[in-house]
Amino acid sequence: FKYKTKNISNKNLKCILVFNYKKVPEYTLKVKSIDGSNIKVISNLDEYNSINEFEKVFDENTNIKILVQKDGYYDMEYKFIMDKDITKNVELIEKKKYTLKIEPIPSDAIVTIYKNNNVLKTGIGTQEAEVIDEDEIRYSVSKYEYNEINETIKINKDENILVNLTKNDEKTIDEMHPCE
Asked: Staple partner for 48: which of 1, 35, 41, 159, CB 3.0–4.6 Å?
């Protein structure tokens, strides 16, 4: 803050502000998805979303996190500090597919297989569904006069599940007061 006071009254006081600028180096981040994946880039407090390609210039020493995702594929994540130009070509690995088979006893029980509360398969008797590695699957098996079974499993291989229902001990109205 510099000022001159010689022959200047307070009303005419003038200020001269001096700023020294130092340019922060900038680097370019380029991310390209080979398979059309969603690209999320998080830098300090900002978040950017893109499909297939992303390009942006960041200041030096900016913390960067890249998350690349696509349904049916394993996620990929990268973390680094911008200290040079960075180009990343990303190809995700497809998740393995498995078969889930639910076989009820008695064989005429109703089987329903769910993923994220959506029905994948339902019907009477043995049911099969194709599922993806790491999926969390819920299934239910039920039949009148039997105790219903509801289970949740995480899939990481082909599964063949035998579900044995037990008879319900509750008496029905007809059994309690038989008609004569």
From this structure: 41
